[in-house]
Write a sequence for this structure.
């Protein structure tokens, strides 16, 4: 090995600064006070990298400039207009765009070598295929996740017989094709395209059987994939800033994926390959259990809440669907005016992406200091007069603690059943998304307020004001 | 495996550890902004997109180049904008219109 003594270009120095900006940007995300600064530092880093790259003998200014501007315009406008409740979809789209770009960059670099009449080194061909595979799985998977979250297609798991076998066969095609490209057989470029297409199909098939309730895991995983695809593109181009940035994102996505899995007490493999929802609906749907619930009016709930000392609000995906976060904030205000202590209990997998509820409540101006994580709030339920469950179901299901036959047995839950009274806001008694029976509803201290969550809360607010 | 690739792998693995270290300190309440911030960061693939689509020996025709850069640009600008929008909503309990005596049970 010889020591490389060529002088580093200023572009490489710029990339180093970018990498440092990204690390500090993420570091500042450790507190909501510094998080915005962090995001801006990271954006400055990005700007430095892009400017440095643009100084590298660009010729296609027209194509490049117009694509940059159009992409920026679409990105900024849609990011500003998107509703906070639609955030998981938005993140999925941006994630898919990154994955697709990474796959194309790898393809482009490989093509460049072939077009120049050369043969790529094994390092380059191996890592190009790697980027192409992960990038297009992430691209296709993100599109399906988007369609599910946007409810263009059903959020329920889509399963068919022989699913695992089909996936395994496609994976085999990818591995064999990969080997052929690296071995640089004649026509290896054609095998590359086959691998790219197979990965795209695998991405689709891999997200199809995953139900909406498992989306926090999938979104995190796809985020990690795009990061790794970007890092692998860095290997192809020999570019450290891509490697570092991709590794940071890959680490983040992986960590979140594992955390989400833990919060559901399921291994990530089980979420991805278990077709969890399908099994549950068949078992729960077979013998729809008779429920003996007490239904009350908004006025009754208003009286319960108004004369309580402490109320804990437990938001779930139903709050997001009904856009009820602003009404909830109003309820908090009228209750606190009467001296009622109001806290929020946030389950790690409530909603469709990690931290989903926090963002929605922040949008409604609920201070983040009122939001409590599961471990902090669980001991509080015993001292709480009313637990108000807004569109959450599985994360409050006591069967997770007691019923060994329940599909969610062992999942850490919010102990709402320990509160003196429980009010559950629910659209109807139809079984929840996952179709799991929830004995909380039969608990004698539980009352149900049926209807759209936003309208119900508005009714409760009016009721409290009238008291 | 070349020495060059090994050096890059070293960088990659060290960056992974830095990432795990830094990100494990992010509180759960900021997990959505974290996802969208890291989402924006993987937009760094725009650098690769510019190199592959914009240089003299660019292998793609104009249309593919355009799509490639557009995807990456969408990722970068959308990602940062949406993260900024989310983070500006996170406020502590200050200007809230309620009694200052909270937090004590």
């Amino acid at each position: 090995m010889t020591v490389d003594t060529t002088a580093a270009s200023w572009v490489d120095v710029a990339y180093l600064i970018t990498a440092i900006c990204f690390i500090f940007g993420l570091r500042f995300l450790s507190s909501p006070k510094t998080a915005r600064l962090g995001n801006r530092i990271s954006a400055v880093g990005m700007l430095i990298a892009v400017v440095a790259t643009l100084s590298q003998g660009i010729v296609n200014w027209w194509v490049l400039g117009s694509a940059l501007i159009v992409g920026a315009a679409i990105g900024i406008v849609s990011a500003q207009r998107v509703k906070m409740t639609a955030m998981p979809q938005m993140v999925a789209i941006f994630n898919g765009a990154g994955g697709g770009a990474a796959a194309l960059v790898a393809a482009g670099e490989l093509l460049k070598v072939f077009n120049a009449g050369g043969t790529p080194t094994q390092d380059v061909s191996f890592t190009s295929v790697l980027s192409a595979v992960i990038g297009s799985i992430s691209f296709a998977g993100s599109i399906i996740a988007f369609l599910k979250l946007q409810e263009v297609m059903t959020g329920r798991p889509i399963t068919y017989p022989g699913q695992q076998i089909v996936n395994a066969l496609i994976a085999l095609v990818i591995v064999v094709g990969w080997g052929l490209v690296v071995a640089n057989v004649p026509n290896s470029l054609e095998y590359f395209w086959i691998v790219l297409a197979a990965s795209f199909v695998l991405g689709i098939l891999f997200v199809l059987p995953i139900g909406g309730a498992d989306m926090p895991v999938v979104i995190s995983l796809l985020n990690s994939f795009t990061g790794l695809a970007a890092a692998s593109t860095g290997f192809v181009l020999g570019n450290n800033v891509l490697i570092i940035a991709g590794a940071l994102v890959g680490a983040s996505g992986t960590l979140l994926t594992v955390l989400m899995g833990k919060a559901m007490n399921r291994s990530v493999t089980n979420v991805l390959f278990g077709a969890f929802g399908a099994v549950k609906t068949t078992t729960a749907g077979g013998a729809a259990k008779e429920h003996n619930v007490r239904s009350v009016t908004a006025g009754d709930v208003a009286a319960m809440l108004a004369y309580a000392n402490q109320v804990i609000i437990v938001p779930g995906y139903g709050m997001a669907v009904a856009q009820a976060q602003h009404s909830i904030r109003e309820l908090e205000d009228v209750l606190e005016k009467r001296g009622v202590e109001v806290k929020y209990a946030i389950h790690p997998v409530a909603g469709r992406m990690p931290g989903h509820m926090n963002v929605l409540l922040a949008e409604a101006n609920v201070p983040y200091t009122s939001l409590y994580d599961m471990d902090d709030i669980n001991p509080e339920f015993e001292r709480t007069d009313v637990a108000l469950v807004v569109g959450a179901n599985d994360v409050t299901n006591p069967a997770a603690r007691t019923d060994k036959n329940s599909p969610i047995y062992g999942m850490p839950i919010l102990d709402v059943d320990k509160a003196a009274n429980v009010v559950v806001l629910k659209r109807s008694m139809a079984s929840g998304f996952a179709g799991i029976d929830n004995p909380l509803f039969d608990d004698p201290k539980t009352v149900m307020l049926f209807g759209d969550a936003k309208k119900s809360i508005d009714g409760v607010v009016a009721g409290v004001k009238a008291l | 495996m070349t020495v060059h690739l090994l050096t890059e792998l070293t960088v990659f693995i060290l960056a992974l550890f830095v990432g795990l270290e830094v990100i494990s300190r992010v509180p759960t309440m900021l997990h959505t902004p974290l996802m969208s911030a890291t989402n924006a960061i993987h937009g760094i693939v725009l650098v690769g997109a510019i190199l592959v689509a914009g240089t003299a020996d660019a292998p793609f025709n104009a249309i593919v180049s355009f799509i490639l850069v557009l995807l990456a640009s969408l990722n970068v600008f959308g990602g940062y904008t949406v993260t900024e929008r989310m983070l500006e909503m996170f406020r502590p309990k200050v200007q809230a219109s309620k009694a200052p005596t909270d937090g004590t049970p």
